[in-house]
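go over this:
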Amino acid sequence: MTRFENATKDLVEKFIKQWLVEEEYEIQPHTDPNTSFNYKIIKSNIQLHVGQHNKSKDNIMIKGVIAFKEDEQAMLRYLKTKRELLYDLEIIFTLANIEFSVNPNVITEEFTIEDIQLTKIIYYDGLTKQTFYDALLSIFNCLKLLISKFILVGRTSMT
C-alpha cells in the first residue's frame, strides 16, 4: 500500500504543492469551480495545470497546453501539412501514454495548435514523487516536441 492509497484530497494537495515548491517550480493557484485544487505552472510558452477534479475520488490530473505568439500561430494556419503533423504527434503521445485531445471552435469547427491539450492521470495508489514528476516531465517534453515539430514544419514550408 502506498501512503496515498486511502488519502484525502487535502493531504494529496499538500504533498503535490510541497513537491512543486521543493523543486523550485513557480506555481500559481488557479481558480476552477470544477476542481478541488488546481496549480498553474508556466515555463516559456508551455502551461501546465496540476489538480484534481471535484468528481474524482482517487486521482490527480496533469494537463498541458501551448500558448504560441501570434506570428507562430498564423504560420501554422497556412501549413499544408497541418493534419499530417497532428496525426504523427498523436501516435507519439499515445506511445508516451499521454491523452491527446483537440478542442475545436464549436462554430467553425476549426482548431489551432493552441487547442491541443495533453493530459495524464495518476491514481492515488500509484502516486509517488517519482510517478508525479515522470508524468509532469512527459507532458512537458511532449509539448516541447510539438513546438519543435511545428517550428521545423514551418521552416520547411517557407522554403
Notes: The chain has one domain: 9-158. The helical segments are 9-22, 70-77, 82-95, 129-158.
